[in-house]
């Protein structure tokens, strides 16, 4: 599975965190959620953390799942 890429985040002075994916805004975090996100980004792989927080990640099985008999 390829690693997520193209995510960037920007922290503002008021504590708000903006996460973008390939230049488009993907999420805005404020208050305790923003603080928790920043802690996770510093502790782990930033690209994977941002992908998880925005819900913008794929598992690689979307095409095969669409063709499964249960999903027809």
From TrEMBL:
This is Uncharacterized protein.
